[in-house]
Amino acid sequence: MNRRFVPGSEPATRSLRNATVPSAAVVTASYAPDFERCRLLCETMDQFVTGSSHHYLLVESRDVSLFRQLETKSRTVVDERDLLPSWLHAWWDPVSLFRRRIWLSLRTQPLRGWHVQQLRRMAIAAHVGEDLLVYCDSDVAFLRPFDCGVFWHDGAARLFRRDNALARPVEGDHLTWSRNAGLALGIAEPEISRHDYIATLIGWRRDTLVGMCRRIEDVHGRHWVETIGRARKFSECMLYGRYADEVLGGDGHFHDDHEFCRVYWSGPALSDDEFRDFVAGMAPEQVAIGMQSFIGTDLSRIRRLISRN
Fold this sequence. Notes:
9 helices; globular; DUF6492
């Protein structure tokens, strides 16, 4: 019988200072167009990943029945309705000719799927009991053995951080994400952190994540989803990193900048030889690859090349 997800009761926060073997779960937020990629993730996780007691797949309500095909005794599909406030609703977006989804409410800006996936990843902490949550995107595939215990050492959780990465010019919205994280958390100075906390395949303490959401509510006097969703440009990684470092003073964490997943973020679809070169270029500590779905690389070819790796 599959493990049943029971929402609504926040688990008791307990001290893990002396815990030697904390429990861990892997968390993946996904959606229907990435279903086959998520299937590949699950297959490679089952083959290579240890140290995790459960895998939570967080999806929109309309995608639940599709993703139930992936459920096992250690893998549960979670409906976002069990995680997010009832006033946030998903609709087909007429601006996109009804090809894309949009999440609307009177309390937030209009939100896209990538926004809501981040909200799900934060919200799950209040509904599960594992001590450590390992976040893995659905377009990731594991190629080497990986033990989730690497995220824990002497009572502290590994916090991915690129020191001073934002002190020099950066592309994209990193500075805005950092600024908005500080505003949400009530951090007056600095306005923007010097550090970057964004990576694929990272681990967070569940009790810290619960505390972060409570902090946002205490600062602003409203639901944390409402505060974050009003900014629209936000990063859950920046929020967690700035909270752990600047509100908690790093308590319960240690820093590390090694990336466990090599990601092909953008560019043309890779040829077979380019894909093999990409895999061959993995650093010794890297155990997985991420191939962004929008770059157009055919999944069947990825699966075939991985099987030959």
